[in-house]
Structures
1.
Amino acid sequence: MGDRDIKSVKMFSIAYRAFLRGSNVWLSAARQKPVKSPSKARQKTIESFMIIRHDIEPALHLSSPAQFPAVVPVDTRQQEVLVVYDDIDQLLKPSLLPAVQSVPDVYARCDGMGTLIQPLWILSAAHVAVELAISHKIEFANTPYAIQQIIIHPDFYTYSSHREISEVQNDIALIQLQHPVQGIAPLPLYRQTDELRQTATFVGQGDFGTGLIGPDQVDGKMRIATNRIEKVDDQWLIFKFDAPPEATELEGISGPGDGGSPALLKTAQGWAVAGVRAGQDSARLGEGYYGVWEYYTRISHHLDWIDSIMQP
């Protein structure tokens, strides 16, 4: 199969997905485990993605490591590059399977993110931090740093199968490193309470898709997206994934594997961390569609707790 044929199959796959999802007959199997290249490696599914508007060149969302060096994955694992993303891809692209290399490509899959806010301290989400082991190391600029302690907010009210994201509380955590990070400027916290209607920038790493079809590709690259803060309360900064023409220029949302990633606001002094990614309310729309609501823990509500932990 030539490059043109593969591209044609891919385009048909995208169109067919859009038809299925738009008709509300999306197969339940499409949210099952992705199909990987043949291997004896253990398979584990963690969805992580940056979903963007469908009518903008995807390359505009790419972020170089130098752009936001303080934002990093705090939990990663090596995973084989997916040949087909899900059961729909497997149905539509069977001719790709025989061409799989005997030694499959791998990439670093992100299971959660964090932001360096002081040389010794990383800010993340509680639901990410509870999965970390104290023996884990976190890399900044290819240098691993050992963890000293992991501090979960004492009033973290976690998820359950019957609980809505809006019912979660205090999804925030701090990770202290054994040694200060060198050569990386921490990002300050946003200390104002005027977040409403401002446009935030998301930084995330993981699977990739658009608001028409949801997650569809995997490449492990860092991306950025923007979104307006539509609602605020004591716990949350809340965003809606708008379709054009109401969308921001680089409109997008994050996903589960990007838990702990920041919502950044631009200030006169530079970027500041205003929120930490907690989750999404997709209602009946399906994850990653236009119209879903994104929830970020509101940093300005937690300043006293954060400062009390990090004080000398």
Note: The domain at 47-82+107-312 is CATH 2.40.10.120 (Thrombin, subunit H).
2.
Amino acid sequence: MSDTPSDRCGVLLLNKQSILVCSFLMLAAAGYHIKSSIAQASMVQAGVGVCLAVGSDSVDASVANVNVETGPNFHRQVQIGGAEFIMGTSNGYPEELAAHKASVESFAIDIHEVTNRQFAAFVEETGYVTTAERTPDPENYPDIPAELLVPGSASFIALDDRPKGQWRDWWKFIEGANWQQPKGPGSNIEGLDNHPVVHVSYLDAVAYATWAGRALPTEAQWEFAAQASAQLKQANTWQGFFPLQDKALDGFDGIAPVGCYKPDSNGLFDMKGNVWELVTDAFQPNVNDSTLAHMRVIKGGSFLCADNFCKRDRPQARQGQEEDFSTDHVGFRTVALPDTRAANNTH
């Protein structure tokens, strides 16, 4: 039985070729124009850009910015003690297998994901241009039609904005989408300073971390730090039957600002749900397989994780993401370099 464009496009492991080709197929098949229905939408949502609940152990959507610092090193971090632990699982998705011993030394990690405000400071000082804002080099993508190689990024598309009858086609490559225009031309991040920055690739995250005198966490660091989050009952995930209805029972339909949910016992916010987070490790389908070229691990799940789909809002969950590709459900946080841990420890 041959599969349809919809069957091929409802994927979790995202890459540039599959998203671009699927977008092209569905546009051609349905005569559907993303920019006409999506790009004109404003991203300004009243009351959703303020939950930076730094230092708070309660969830309050009315909390204003608390102790917002300035400068390149304005990350608030907590120190995580080193230890040996069991990484992965023997009862999960194939890429999470198998449970094995791992160890980490003490490290300091950001209490929340890097925000639009923080990333904007980096761009303002350096003039950095993200991968989503650049035109891809055709030599690097010989299997993608040249007409599809345009600046942009992948976005989750709500049910009402999908082609008629193509309810499974929830990912689209949007020309012109980037961290400053998350839904494409005509959208913006006004009022979303405290939202995690998205539409950034692994290469962008590394550039930011280098500028800030930090690094991305290793997968072992991230998973060890996230173990405390497994006990949290509430996080920004999908409530309802994915991908048809998000009831938004957690208070948010889509990405939430950082710090809107109770932190874990380490003092870390949003280690489950909200946005996937990039780490340094190259992606392996499992510990016995070879790494995939140009793929990096993402951790933690996102606002798209539902009971019936993508139950990956867990510490052991992992997926692969191309180094030079971005989406609207992947962000990152940083760890301090060894010689800066003491200066940045606020635990």
Note: The two ends are 57 Å apart (CA to CA).
3.
Amino acid sequence: MDNKIYFGWDIGGANTKLAICNSKCEVIESYFEVIPIWESTKPLEDFFQFVLNKFSSANCLHLITFTAESCDNFSSRSEGINYLINLCEKNLSGKIKYYSNSNSYIDFYQADKFPEQLYSTNWMLTLNYIRRLNNINLIIDIGSTTTDFIYKGMNLDANIDDFSRLKNKTLLYQGVVRTPLAMLADKISFNNQDLPIIKEVYATTGDVFCMLDDIDFSKLPYVGSDNLPFSKENSRRRILRSFGLDENYKDNSIVISISKQLKQIFLENMLGYISHICKTIKSDLVISSIGEGRKLIQEVCYEKKIKHENLMKSHLIIDDEHLNNVDLFSHFTSFLVILNYFEKNNE
């Protein structure tokens, strides 16, 4: 093997994930940065510079997958890809390869000429991975903004873009941090009365899962809709505001009741998509989950008696020896863009 350092970049609209591996595909470091591309790309450039300063003397190979091209500060996805690849070329040193929808790694000139080959490719890495698994036939990647349903036998051409995946129910715009409460429901019930949810982005799903201790936000760099961190106090205030109440409202049971009802609606939406995919999968369903909300899928599987397997038991190249205590499940695609490159070059 060579002495390169491999950088796996998963550049999304809301956050950027990075895995850094040595020539044995062992994870050296990993990073998770909240970078809203629709606001500014300057933080991404700063992040590039921070990483390069740490590895200034390294022989670098950057392997990059995107979903950020869909942000609405770009007039089209092609414009988004062109802008982002130029940003990468300007700021990253060493060799750069972009992961395409043909499961190949292409250079700047190909990417610039055919930007559509780079549209939202990160989930395709998971599709390639699940094809090699014997014991899992559905991986659910539940992130901050969206949820991907990736199953064995899934037709890539039929799901080539977000429009197709939305139609096919393999992409759900529902995540565990950024989804506004009013996108989940119009109202909830409390003391036998309907409580309409204000149609503003006062609170999000992150507040629900913070109040119910489903996600440990102390280890995640997210902030809520008011740009304050996720904490019980902040999430309580944001949820109350969504129902026309102030933080001095004394009955805390209403916040817990609201959170439990919205969580149930959230999980029922997930189950609807799982049931739809069950009609396509011919063998017994075995699910694995990744992303910030992976434990919610484990909870659903337990309650509904659906078999859930840990990806760490898949007996492929991913194992504790390669991970060096890195949280694989939150950095999965940034690691996969490297792993897939290694495996393609060893074919």
Note: The longest helix spans residues 253-278.
4.
Amino acid sequence: MKIKSIAACAAMALFAFPMFAQAAEQTAGDEQAARPMENAVIAENAPKSQTIRLGDRKSAGRTVVVTEPDQRASLKEKRQKEEQKAEKARAAEEARKEKELQREKRRMEKEKKKAEKEAAKALAKEKRRREKLGLPPLTPDELLSPAEKAKKMHDVVNNPLIPADWGGDTIYGLSIATEEQCVKFLLERNPRPQLSVSPQELVHYYFTEGAREGIRGDVAFAQAMKETGYFNYGGTVTPDQNNYCGLGTTSSTVKGGYFPTAEIGVRAHIQHLLAYSSTRRPATEIVDPRYELVRDIWGENCLTHWTDLNGRWAVPGNYYGESILELFEEILAR
């Protein structure tokens, strides 16, 4: 009996299977036919391009394909942000430079007033001394300001140089040391100076540029050795700047001027000394970036001696000029 029942169930299953298979195929076909219509409706209602943030992509639980227009928009926005950031940095740097320039201008104006006050005080003292001793009054030449004295001594007819006897500790004048003495002294202190030219060439530039402007090239070279640590550097200024006098280096974070060649760097140094010591314009094109600033502030006032640079060329600058002259004396001993 049991065997008959099992056989009957098997026969019924074989009979019903084709019907179920046909129904399943019909259902799958209907779903496949309906899917393109659904996709068409979604595509029609969807935006042409859409930028979806990364967080939205994760939370959506689906894979999002970013189209090319979305990528271009993202890159454009990134470039705009970078440009805005760079513009802010440029504006901040310009503001910092302007602030530094104004601070330097105020400092130099203060020094100018101090120098004028000291000159007036010294003149009054000299007048009282002469009156007390019964000496004759000051001559017209003695009453000239330092700038007028410098101009009178410098602007000799057919002679662009200061008289040879105007030397010693003055900024103006002819070189006393020789080029060979300067080179020998440098190589004794630093056999391998970090220069873009040979020591002989650099020294020759100082003597040539100094003679052209009436500035002591030998002492200016001594100043360059002091400023650069015998051309070892190691401070804010680097050898590639060809900046031998700390020109424009107003703080530990401001590197100062860059000059294309050693000769131009020397010329800028000599012109900066000229700006402090004379009202006469340079004989060549101005390459000193701070020349006009010095001249605008000091006007008719000028510095005569290297020791006058104390607190002016370098701050605080105690014994600054004296230390330069000590180096110069060592050069002369060679």
Note: The longest helix spans residues 68-133.
